[in-house]
Design goal:
By secondary structure, the protein is α/β, with parallel strands linked by helices. The protein has one domain: SGNH hydrolase (Rossmann fold, 3-Layer(aba) Sandwich), CATH 3.40.50. Helices cover 34% and strands 16% of the residues. It has eleven helices and eleven strands. The strands form three sheets. Strands 6-5-8-1-9-10-11 form a seven-stranded mixed beta sheet, sandwiched between helices. Strands 2-7 form a two-stranded antiparallel ribbon. A hairpin with a 7-residue loop joins strand 5 and strand 6. The chain starts with 12 loop residues before the first helix and ends with a helix.
Length: 331
């Protein structure tokens, strides 16, 4: 039985059917038989707080008011389930959650994260089935929790709170899942897999600290090198969606303005071939500041979670998917 949060998208049915029918078909990648694996990692905004049900700023609101862009996401009044994109999340709550891509893979079953828009893009692009591995935890920093091993000589992490523990957990999750694909993805046909790309959306716990901000670009460069090495995928395509909460209009009087804007820019700098020629053509950046929606346009005033605006999370994920496909196709 559908969850209560997936009811009530029932208005404008004819308009939505028209929008779905006229939704442009993207270029697809011919099948080669291998399962396409993507990893999405980060902190709470990768976990996801985009609200599905309700009034202003929710999925229901955007589907009702903008069927042209979002009507294809529903059918017969219910969010479409993609039976070609499987999601595995064994991170956020400590409870395993697996299933076909729908609107229930955020912080709870009434919320989405970037995986939703991302999954729609890569699912449309690849004729082979897609597996998305989510490894995300709220309140974790790159300067400590996700610190990659080559950035600093630290003891091997053993538990949550140890330096580098969540970096090691991302690697562990990917290896655990890809080594036991039939367990985590029952429809796996045994024809092999390939890790296609890695998506990163994180930064709040670094941007509140000037020292963490100053170290971020260097730490992220180490992260990219290390995660490629530890997952055994040379030049693995990687996209960074910056931590754009606050948008383009952070007040000049805000004491944190320079610090947070430096972090946003430094995150995108990893994709700049002039600053980081080693990552040319394999790292992309997604500017998220334009996805900020105001409190009045959103279900919440929770600024560190993008005011829980559904469209914001959808657009972040969609843009990350498009950026990764751009890296793979050179477009």
């Amino acid at each position: 039985m559908p969850s209560p949060t997936r009811h009530a998208i029932t208005l404008f049915a004819c308009l939505l059917m028209f929008a779905a029918a006229t939704h442009a078909e993207p270029e697809t990648r011919p099948a080669n038989g291998k399962l396409k694996v993507f990893i999405l990692a980060g902190q709470s905004n990768m976990v996801g707080f985009g609200t599905v049900a309700g009034d202003v700023g929710t999925m229901q609101h955007y589907v009702r008011t903008n069927a042209k862009d979002y009507g294809h996401l529903v059918k017969d009044g219910e969010p479409v389930v993609r039976y070609d994109v499987w999601v595995v999340n064994i991170s956020h709550t400590g409870k395993e959650k697996t299933g076909w891509l729908d609107t229930t893979f955020g912080a709870n079953e009434g919320l989405i994260g970037p995986e939703y828009g991302f999954g729609w893009v890569v699912g449309e692009h690849y004729e082979d089935p897609v597996l998305i591995i989510k490894s995300a935890w709220g309140g974790r920093s790159l300067v400590h929790n996700f610190l990659p091993p080559s950035a600093e000589d630290y003891p091997e992490p053993q538990k949550d709170g140890d330096k580098g523990f969540h970096y090691a957990e991302v690697v562990r999750h990917v290896k655990e899942i890809t080594s036991n694909l039939k367990k985590y993805y029952p429809d796996y046909d045994g024809k092999g897999y390939e890790i296609v790309g890695f998506g990163w959306h994180q930064g709040w716990n670094d941007r509140i600290n000037a020292d963490a901000v100053n170290a971020y670009e260097n730490n992220m460069a180490h992260f990219i090198r290390d995660i490629r090495k530890d997952l055994g995928v040379k030049d693995m395509p990687l996209v960074i969606a910056n931590t754009g909460m606050g948008g383009w209009d952070i007040p000049e009087t805000a004491h944190y303005k320079k610090r947070v804007e430096k972090l946003m820019d430094d995150q995108l700098a990893l994709a700049d071939p002039k600053k980081h020629p080693e990552f040319k053509g394999t790292v992309a950046g997604v500017e998220t500041r334009g996805f900020q929606r105001t409190r009045e346009q959103s279900p919440s005033g929770q600024g560190f979670h993008w005011n829980r605006n559904w469209e914001t999370y959808y657009l972040i994920g969609k843009s990350m998917g498009e950026a990764l496909i751009g890296l793979k196709t050179g477009k």
